[in-house]
Write a structure and sequence with these properties.
Distance between the termini: 21 Å
Largest sheet: none
Strand content: under 5%
Helix content: over 70%
Number of strands: 0
Number of helices: 2
Order of helices and strands: HH
Radius of gyration: 17 Å
């Protein structure tokens, strides 16, 4: 079998991964900014042993979602 992956089919999921990760980082920053400005409450991360799981999982989940959506659109 000789299957070829076109550059548009490969570039779509990569672009979705990058855009999804950027969206996740912006989402976590927006929620953090809203917490500081709206509720007047800051979270001290200097003494924490590890960052909160939301700071790690939200960008990963949005990156995977962006990759899946872009791959499905590229396959059409």
């Amino acid at each position: 079998m000789n299957t070829h992956i076109h550059s548009t089919q490969a570039a779509g999921p990569v672009l979705g991964l990058v855009a999804g990760a950027a969206e996740g980082f912006l989402l976590t920053e927006a929620v953090g900014g809203r917490t500081v400005l709206g509720l007047d409450h800051t979270r001290d991360l200097d003494d924490a042993p590890a960052p909160p799981t939301a700071l790690i999982t939200v960008p990963i989940l949005t990156a995977l979602t962006g990759t899946v959506i872009a791959a499905r659109k590229a396959g059409r």
